[in-house]
Amino acid sequence: MNSPEQRRAPRKQPDFAVTVTDVITSQPLGHLGNLSSNGMLLIGHHAPRSEAVYQVALPLPSHDGTLPTIEVGIQEQWHEPAATPGQIWSGYRIIAIGTADAALLERWLQQS
């Protein structure tokens, strides 16, 4: 990543592949690389538009075996080619999240 380190919250990697879906188009935006209370890294096959805003849904696996899905608004902050050919890494800032989804996200982040 060429931009200076701007993370303010610790990020957590999912234990399995989590597909992040664009709610408007119903198309996958990428796979979740990591997630925090204020941002995420997605690994996809197409570069997003610079500073684009998306409404996305993503499942957050829990220890009890459930797979609740949260919906968040995100804005692209940066993107660059990954080391694997054909993959793009994209950093997003969470710009909108409902109270219930924020609580689910916080519980997921606290799980070890």
Question: Could you characterize the architecture of this molecule?
Answer:
- It is globular, with a radius of gyration of 13 Å.
- It has one helix and six strands.
- The relative contact order is 0.23.
- With 112 residues, the protein is mainly beta.
- A six-stranded antiparallel β-barrel has the order 1-2-3-6-5-4.
- It has a single domain (19-110), classed as Thrombin, subunit H, CATH 2.40.10.
Q: Compute the CA-based radius of gyration.
A: 13 Å
Q: What would CATH call the architecture?
A: Beta Barrel
CATH fold topology: Thrombin, subunit H
Strand order, sheet with most strands: 1-2-3-6-5-4
* Unreliable spans: 1-5
> What count of domains describes the coordinates?
1
Main sheet specs: 6 strands, antiparallel, barrel
The end-to-end span amounts to 27 Å
* Number of helices in the DSSP assignment: 1
Structural class: mainly beta
How many E strands? 6
Strand content: 35-45%
The helix fraction, in percent, is 10-25%
Mean pLDDT: 90
Shape: globular
Secondary-structure blueprint:
Elements: E1 19-22, E2 28-35, E3 39-44, E4 53-59, E5 69-81, E6 88-97, H1 99-110
What brief labels describe this structure?
6-stranded antiparallel barrel; 112 residues; mainly beta; 1 helix; single chain; Thrombin, subunit H; 6 strands; 11% helix
Summarize the structure.
This protein is mainly β and 112 residues long.
